[in-house]
Amino acid sequence: MGSYGDEETGKGLPNSPPNNSIFRYNSPLVQVGLIGLVCFCCPGMFNALSGMGGGGQVDHTAANNANTALYTTFAIFGILGGGIYNILGPQKTLFVGCSTYILYAGSFLYYNHHKHQAFVVVAGGLLGIGAGLLWAAQGAIMTSYPPHDRKGTYISMFWSIFNMGGVIGGLIPFVSNYNRTTAASVNDGTYIGFMIFMAIGTFLSLAILHPSKVTRNDGSKCTNIKYSSVSVELLQILKLFGNWKMLLMVPASVASNFFYTYQFNNVNGVLFNLRTRGLNNVFYWGAQMIGSVFIGSIMDYSFKSRRARGLVGIIIVGLLSTAIWGGGLAKQLKYSCEDVPDHIVLLDFKDGSKFAGPFVLYFSYGLLDAMFQSMVYWVIGALADDSEILSRYTGFYKGIQSAGGAVAWQVDSRNVTFLNQLIANWTLTTISFPLLIALILLAVKDDNKEEEGATKEVAIPSNHDISTTVDKPNKE
């Protein structure tokens, strides 16, 4: 929890900083850029690894089981991550989280030689813990640091930097496996390349400042957290499960990682040969950069009214979602899991028109993913301003998202038909839009004066009983 009065809201009375440059080390722009670079190196490379289908292995079983373990622990620590972030601060939270990515990539290097699943599955479970910590910290930083009218811009900036990791990461398997056009697992050099980037990101996380040290250009602090305790955080996290705003976000949270399994394993992993999967990922994550910038601009600049911007953004993403999943259905009707691998000729990027259609579809899936998730983050950022509250909100979002991901990986392992997986993804995504519209109408205020209720709870020192927590006016 925060301290009393104006500092608690993160807005404070303007105190002109010595240097008003947006490129100050303690400016929101630089700090959001740094968290983007951390995610470029760690989850960005993880995305490139997962995007090849099966973690780069011909047999998807080990990767599916590892991802089930990953998203199961992620679901738990995603929800707990916001509270852990509020206690440990960004540096410790991020450093521990990032280090687990290195272990995960290393487990596939081991699997290339020994074919034992146990290490890969354990590494996946540990990565779920680390990812929960990393994404809770990332969400708090990305949604609370920017000025109110530029949250979409900052989110799109983060998303572009982060997904550049997927672009570079996609080039690693493309280049290192260029001469291998037949079905095969990726070589050792691919995994080593991923591990090097992940190690860089782990140490870069130490450059992230505590939110109380970050100052906006008007002199206001993003937040001034002075104390939080395990009991306070557990209580606040439990309250999220009864928070109607969070409950409205559950379908969007589930949908936002559920479709990865289908897209990575059953589109990219089934239709294309090894080197082309890497190339496809360059464009999949490149499309994410385009999509995030596009939707970020709409949700910041399209209308003066913040509520109107949110509604327009949701409607645009909803229409695009319908068109892209419709295109996916048209392609899916032409092949099935019974055709794999005997009756499908794997596509190569040199196959001309045969390659073009499935490639555009996969590119469009990347575009939709970025727009959908950037839209959800914008909505979360519009619900509150304080870093502590938003760390819990984003942690809840990532936790539920990961629970959906755990289910999706097991759905694929159980050989559920590709068509049924597509229908489930389309349905979950579509259900999300009317609920997000309701959230915008009911909870987002244009004047920023009634968000997160009229009061905020304030942390009490540890020698006080938790029942003495009091409400203080939320001064704007």
Quick structural summary:
By secondary structure, the protein is mainly α.
Tally of DSSP β-strands? 2
- Could you spell the SSE succession in H and E letters? HHHHHHHHHHHHHHHHEE
The level of helicity is 55-70%
Major β-sheet annotation: 2 strands, antiparallel
**Number of spatially distinct domains:** 1
Question: Runs with pLDDT <50, length 5+?
Answer: 1-18, 448-476
What structural class do helix, strand and pairing data support? mainly alpha
User: Which fold name corresponds to the CATH topology?
Assistant: Growth Hormone, Chain: A
Terminal-residue CA separation: 17 Å
Number of helices: 16
User: How is the largest sheet built, in terms of strand order?
Assistant: 1-2
- What would the average pLDDT be, to the nearest integer? 81
**From the 3D coordinates, which CATH architecture would you assign?**
Up-down Bundle
* Principal-axes shape call: globular
Keywords: Membrane, Transmembrane, Transmembrane helix
Transmembrane segments: 29-49, 69-87, 94-111, 117-137, 158-178, 190-209, 244-262, 282-303, 310-330, 359-383, 423-444
Biased composition (Polar residues): 464-476
Protein name: Unc93-like protein 2
